[in-house]
Amino acid sequence: MNFSTRILLSYFLLFAISMATLIGYLYWSTTAGKQESVVLELRGNAVRILDDLAGHIHDHRMELSAMATARIWYDDSPAAYLQERIASYKEIYSIYDRITLFDADGRIIGDSNQAAIGTVDRCLCWQDGMSGKSGFHVVAAQAQHDSSIHYYQGIRNRRGRLATVLAIRIPLSHIMKHVRGFPQFPAALGTPLKIELVDTDGRLLYSNRTDSVIGDKTLALAELRHLTGHLNTTSDDSSVSEQNGMLTILALSRHKEVENHPIPWIMLVQIDKEQIFADIRKHRANISLFALLLMGVSGGLIWMVAARLSRPVKELAEQAAEMSRGRFESIRELPARSDEFGCLVESMRTMGSRLDAALGELKEREEKFKTVADLTINWEYWIAPDGDFLYISPSCQSISGYGSEEFRQRPGLLTEIIHPEDRPMFMQHLSGALHEPDETTTAHEELEFRIMTKGGETRWLNHVCRPIFGAEGEFLGRRASNFDITSRKKYEELIHNLNADLEAKVLSRTAELESSVRDLEGFCYAVSHEIRAPLARLEGFSRALNEEASICGNEQHCYYAGRLVAASRQLQEVIDGLLLFTRLPRLAIIRQKVNLSDLATGLTAELLALQPERAVDFAITPGISVAADPELIRTCLRILLDNAVKFTSLSPTARVELGINSERGKEAFFVRDNGAGFDMRFSDKLFVPFQRLHSQKNFAGIGIGLATAKRIIERHGGRIWADSRPGEGATFFFTLNGGEEINP
Amino acid sequence: MKPCRILLVEDNGDDEYLTRRALNKTDIHDVEVAHDGIEAIEILFGEKRMELPLPDLVILDLRLPMVDGVEVLESIRNDYRTMGLPVIILTSSEDIRDKETCFNLGIAAFISKPLQAGALQEIMKHL
């Protein structure tokens, strides 16, 4: 249902409802008014009829009274008088049905009906008349007669005795004929269906309908009581009831007495409502017709208005549909308007042009991004948490041989083409990667695997991926890149092979070198032993010779033998020093806690024991403790002390000092003497094997000591350096655990 | 202790002479000489030994033909009879590994050649 139809319908509905309400109200008020007026008039009529009837009844009574009493003044035999005149009365008063004259015994002495004369009829009228009363009885319909009114009057003779009763009978219907406006009601009131007269016992006395049986009880006692109760409590003399579309009006005569005779008759008027409202119905049909016409006309008008109202809306809707299809030209052709629709059109036009521009820009950008994304060399893709590809770059074709569509249609294809050996690793990665991660885990994951391309080729891929999250922190899957690293892998393999070759070469060279070193070591060992053994013998025999010569007292021989001993000893020292020096780099350093002070004390004692002629003042700082190889540190310290003692041999007061310098947290030990000293210009030659700064003549030595000491210190991760001036002594510093050079 | 009987294991005649000289100077004359390791083992564990008592001291050279001094020392230390026998190593080698091995096996002294009477007497004092 479109907009204009809805407008139309709603207007029409509103109109129809108001019309219906109006008509309904009019009709209701009309009918109610009509009913009220009709009922009122009917009630008035009923009461008036009753009054009129009562008047007639009274009149007839008066007539009877006049008949009965007129004779009294002329004759002393009223009976005879009346007997003569019955026939004439009957003629005069055609309304009288019967005129009867009774004597005192109840015998009919005169009658309009000749056949009844002479018969005895002691009826109610005779009885009442003989009791001196005058009045009437209402006699309900009987077999041959209609309902009738029997008037009676007892007549006295001259002697004042009740001798005769005159009675007349008038049918009720005859009286009714004389009642004004009866039985026809005024035409405006319609024709009552039923006009009935009922006595207080509920018996029907008169009815305008032929099917009613006179004398039947037509009103129930309850109704009568209700009516009389209602009439007694109110000043009303009528009541109205409605049943099955019939209005029933019951009216009670207020003309209660006619010479003490109550006439308690009830008038019943029944009328069909339809009859009352017939003319209204006729009007109603007209009104309805008029209303329909009005509605038709107004419907047309409304349709025209609605169409006019909704036309711009319809146009706008069409334009919006056009715009939604991406066509923005037709909106520009809409004519300008000054109303709200014009404003809307203008807004839509602006919106359209902006949208057009935005779409153009979007398209351009999409083109750009598409170029960037689709023309990558790497195989880029975005995989959703459910494993589907949201994006896969066309470069997958050149890398794997499979097109991006194939991957989209078969999300498992990526796993399938992975080399069987790498597949478990990849599956493990995939199961971990697609499990919803924490937002904080944005780290890249990287792995390398092989794939089998469509052409059956094996390629190496480097796979990098990371989880991505939306603005709300929801997991959107993983963004991954696959690089083809086949060529890199080839080079890596090449490099690996080259390295392996190189390693093998190095190993073989090292083995060769080690074997040479072993040979050299063996050689040294052999040489040292082979030289040492005869040297020891040389020394032994020299000593023996020295002893023998000293016993003989040959000083010359003694001196020679002494020099032999000294020379062999020196040679032995050279060999020992060389052996130690060459073996040092490969000796295992086993560090222990060594008390340097104690060690130095022992060594100085040994030195002095060897040179008893020397007097050296030793100053050894006690409690110097180091972690070093005990044997090697002993050798080192012996060399340094030996040197110190040696170079102070020319000093008048020789002093040798062992101490420790603790500066900047580093411990440097030193051996200081006040001996010959040396020129610092040559300090670089100090620790070089067989380099000497003093002549052999002044200070004996082989020139290997400090080189050995340096090697020992360096093997301990320490440094050794010297500070000296010629003639002012020398100080040798050393550290033992990789300390820096510290000058005091 | 005053050892009267000494087993000298020495392959070189000159060294044997020099050692004997030093021993004689220390007033030790009962010296039996084995010229190589096999002979030394024969003397110590051979049938002849059943008749003679064990020497009081063994002076052992390390550089010996065929069976060297370290092997002889091992044999001495591995036999219950000679387990406690004092041994002095007299060698021209200063090899630190030999020295370690010998001290680990158990020796009285490790002396460099030539043997000098003073040094010997010093060692004998502690035996």
Shape designation of chain B: globular
Helix fraction of chain A?
40-55%
- What is the number of beta strands of chain B? 5
Principal-axis shape of chain A equals: rod-shaped
* Strand residues, percent of chain B: 15-25%
Mean pLDDT across all residues of chain A, rounded? 82
Termini separation of chain A (Å)?
108 Å
Biggest chain contact = A-B, 16 and 16 residues
Structural class of chain B: alpha/beta
Give a structural overview.
The complex is a heterodimer of chains A (744) and B (127). Chain A is 49% helix and 20% strand. Chain A is an alpha+beta fold and 744 residues long. In chain A, the strands form six sheets. A five-stranded antiparallel sheet of chain A has the order 2-1-5-4-3, sandwiched between helices. A five-stranded antiparallel sheet of chain A has the order 7-6-12-9-8, with helices on both faces. In chain A, helix 1 (3-70) runs antiparallel to helix 6 (273-324). Mean pLDDT of chain A is 82; it is low at 738-744. With 127 residues, chain B is an alpha/beta fold. Helix content of chain B is 41%, strand content 18%. Chain B has a five-stranded parallel sheet with strand order 2-1-3-4-5. The N and C termini of chain B lie close together (6 Å). The relative contact order of chain B is 0.19. The interface between A and B is medium-sized, with 16 and 16 residues.
Give a quick set of tags describing it.
heterodimer; A: 744 residues; alpha+beta; 5-stranded antiparallel β-sheet; rod-shaped; disordered C terminus; B: 127 residues; alpha/beta; 5-stranded parallel β-sheet
Gist of the model:
The complex is a heterodimer of chains A (744) and B (127). With 744 residues, chain A is α+β, with helices and mostly antiparallel strands.
Topology:
The complex is a heterodimer of chains A (744) and B (127).
Chain A: H1 3-70, H2 78-92, E1 98-103, E2 108-111, H3 124-130, E3 134-139, E4 148-156, E5 162-171, H4 172-178, E6 194-198, E7 204-207, H5 221-233, E8 238-243, E9 246-252, E10 257-258, E11 261-262, E12 266-272, H6 273-324, H7 340-374, E13 379-383, E14 389-392, H8 395-400, H9 404-409, H10 413-417, H11 423-434, E15 445-452, E16 458-469, E17 475-484, H12 486-552, H13 555-583, E18 592-595, H14 596-610, E19 616-620, E20 625-628, H15 630-647, E21 654-663, E22 666-673, H16 705-715, E23 720-724, E24 730-734
Parallel strand pairs in A: 19-21
Antiparallel strand pairs in A: 1-2, 1-5, 3-4, 4-5, 6-7, 6-12, 8-9, 9-12, 10-11, 13-14, 13-17, 15-16, 16-17, 18-20, 21-22, 22-24, 23-24
Chain B: E1 5-9, H1 13-25, E2 30-34, H2 37-45, E3 57-60, H3 69-78, E4 87-91, H4 96-105, E5 109-112, H5 117-126
Parallel strand pairs in B: 1-2, 1-3, 3-4, 4-5
Helix pairs in contact in B: 2-3, 3-4
